[in-house]
Every structure is written in structure tokens, then in C-alpha cells.
Write a structure and sequence with these properties.
This protein has 4 helices and 8 strands, in the order αββαββββααββ. It is α+β, with helices and mostly antiparallel strands. The protein has 2 domains: about 100 residues, 2-Layer Sandwich (Glycoprotein, Type 4 Pilin), CATH 3.30.700; about 70 residues, 2-Layer Sandwich (Dna Ligase, domain 1).
Amino acid sequence: MTPVTSEADRQRLLRIARDALTGHLTGAVPAATPIQTSAVAGVFVTLHKEGELRGCIGCVDAHEPLAHVVPRYAVAAGTADPRFPALTIAELSLIVIELSILGPLEPVASVEEIEVGRHGLVVEADGQRGLLLPQVATEWRWDRHTFVAQTCRKAGLPLDAWTKGARVWRFEAEVFSE
């Protein structure tokens, strides 16, 4: 994937995410961080605490520049991920923020089109949708079949839903962290 952001803007986006999360937890108003990119893309904010997942929320389709959506999803990842209790001020210094800027969704006709470590997946059927970022399959050492099955599971679908008409898309992501 061709990078959407420069290295300088990646650092600024991470600062924006950190400032938004800190501001939300402490009540401090974050200072404005100038940013050059006006890129509009889907984004996921992932929080890790001591190497473990602590929250992850984002959107596939954005309609606003990254500088506007990143702070919103940074706060949501720390406070609204239903898998975890809200982040506390005491945990803030232990959190590492990772951003995944999503490329466009491409329909997958065959599981062989999926490259583990390169592609993230979206599976959708019966009004249910699940997404797993590219780094998830690598972290868990999944093969492509397991990756698709686990994305079905994330959507609340049977593990084999992808073989029974569920729609599958792949995407690439620009992933960077503090």
C-alpha cells in the first residue's frame, strides 16, 4: 500500500490520539497539533498495555480527514470497547497507541487472494459485519483459512460463513505506533 501519510504526519496523528485520550481522562483541553495531511481514510486505533490488547475501535469508511477522526476513535478505544472496562488515568502511561490507516476494500473471490500479514479482512452476512486488521493474523500465526474463519467469528457468524455466501473483502493498512 502506498503510504497515505508522511512520517511527520504519522507522529502528529499519534500525538493527536495521545492528547485526545489524555484530555478525555484528565479533563485537560488538548493543544492543537498542526498536521499537513488532509487524507480521508478508514482508521482503527488500537491500545496495548504491557503488550496486551487494551482496546480497539475504528471505522472502515471515513468521511472526514484523519486529524478529525483519530481523536474520536482514540477516546472510544480507551472508553467504549465493550470487551474492556474504561481506561483509567493510572493506566495512561502504560498504554501504547497504534494506528491502522485502511486502504480501500477489495472483494475477495477466492481465499487464495488473501495474503496473511498484508491484508486485513471484512466479512459480512445477514446484517452482521466483522473486521480484523492485517496484524491480527500475524500475531496469532493464523493461515488464511483460519483468518477468514476468525473474521466470520468476529462478525458473529458461523466459522464457515465465508463458504456459504458471506461477502469477504480484503484491505491493506498503513500501521504505525508510538
